[in-house]
């Protein structure tokens, strides 16, 4: 088969080497490991909010990519200035607005009020001890006054994201591409498709920032390759990935990165098992001060 043509319409704007070499957060003194932890938690928060808002998987994935893009490069947002929870909420609101399933500011903020409640939140990185048996509604109730102030923040952060990204918010997700590739190879299987989607969803949380460093066709091919090996599904003979414009070196890197996601997630959970990951700028700076004091001792 000849390589598939027209991939330009299925490509994303990728981060440059200069953007990947440094970030606005690092320039403000935020350590790389802390930045990675906050980005990881923010992406998980974005996914959880999308699920509670009953948004399609594609919209949720696009919101996570927008959230990730915001922090990249010296011209990106800094965790010392912007709160990850605000950028997460604005990413969900903005992405949903551009989809066939927009959601209201009130719905978004109600969901985030619940997810960020230290008493009621089911998220381990917000509430390490877990929620009570019956969390009290008043612990995550959003009053009208609070809603109005939070709504202004949401709209301001939406504008900040658009300005920071230069209004480049088009995001192509590899999930549908992967299914198309499977059909091309006559390898459709519910179990395989499920495993592929699991790898693609996990890759959204990657510390290697896979969705902003590799095109969606490459992500789709890597997930297919890894999922097929795990499920014992035989694909086309030969180096079939070249048909989809992916070389062996890129495929190998992506497969290794996807395989490492479970270990990375477990390490993060163990690292933060006694305290929440800071998702507010002031908490990030407080964590930074504690680290400096500890290093000084």
Explain what you see.
The protein is 59% helix and 0% strand. It is mainly α and 297 residues long. It has two domains: 163 residues, Cyclin A, domain 1, CATH 1.10.472; 91 residues, Cyclin A, domain 1, CATH 1.10.472.10. The N terminus is likely disordered.
Which labels suit this protein?
Cyclin A, domain 1; single chain; Cyclin N-terminal domain-containing protein; 297 residues; 14 helices; mainly alpha; Cyclin/Ssn8; Cyclin-like_sf; globular
Query: What is the mean predicted local confidence, pLDDT?
Result: 91
The ordered H/E elements are HHHHHHHHHHHHHH
Count of helix runs: 14
Q: Kindly provide the radius of gyration, computed on alpha-carbon positions and rounded to a whole number of angstroms.
A: 20 Å
Kindly provide the name of the CATH class of the largest domain. Mainly Alpha
* Strand composition percent: under 5%
What structural class do the secondary elements suggest? mainly alpha
Identify the CATH homologous superfamily of the largest domain. Answer: Cyclin-like
Shape: globular
CATH topology of the largest domain: Cyclin A, domain 1
Oligomer: single chain
User: How many strands in all?
Assistant: 0
The biggest beta sheet reads:
none
State the end-to-end distance: 63 Å
Protein name: Cyclin N-terminal domain-containing protein
Organism: Elaphomyces granulatus
GO molecular function: cyclin-dependent protein serine/threonine kinase regulator activity
């Amino acid at each position: 088969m000849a390589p598939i043509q027209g991939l330009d319409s299925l490509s994303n704007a990728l981060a440059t080497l200069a953007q990947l070499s440094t970030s606005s957060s690092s320039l403000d003194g935020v350590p790389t490991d802390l930045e990675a932890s906050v980005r990881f938690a923010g992406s998980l928060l974005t996914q959880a909010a999308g699920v509670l808002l009953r948004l399609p998987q594609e919209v949720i994935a696009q919101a996570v990519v927008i959230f990730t893009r915001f922090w990249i490069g010296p011209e990106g947002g800094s965790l010392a200035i912007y709160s990850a929870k605000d950028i997460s909420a604005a990413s969900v609101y903005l992405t949903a607005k551009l989809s066939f399933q927009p959601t209201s500011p009130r719905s978004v903020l109600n969901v985030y009020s619940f997810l960020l409640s230290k008493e009621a939140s089911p998220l381990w990185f917000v509430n390490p001890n877990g929620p009570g048996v019956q969390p009290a509604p008043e612990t995550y109730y959003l009053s009208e006054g609070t809603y109005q102030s939070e709504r202004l923040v949401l709209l301001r952060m939406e504008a900040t994201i658009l300005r920071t990204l230069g209004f480049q918010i088009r995001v192509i997700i590899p999930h549908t591409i992967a299914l198309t590739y499977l059909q091309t190879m006559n390898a459709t299987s519910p179990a395989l498709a499920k495993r592929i989607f699991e790898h693609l969803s996990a890759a959204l949380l990657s510390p290697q920032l896979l969705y902003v460093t590799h095109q969606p066709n490459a992500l789709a091919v890597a997930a297919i390759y890894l999922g097929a090996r795990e499920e014992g599904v035989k694909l086309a003979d030969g180096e079939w990935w070249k048909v989809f414009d992916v070389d062996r070196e890129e495929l190998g890197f992506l497969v290794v990165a996807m395989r490492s996601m479970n270990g990375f997630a477990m390490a993060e959970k163990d690292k933060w098992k006694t305290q929440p990951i800071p998702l507010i700028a002031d908490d990030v700076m407080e964590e930074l001060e504690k680290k400096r004091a500890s290093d000084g001792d």
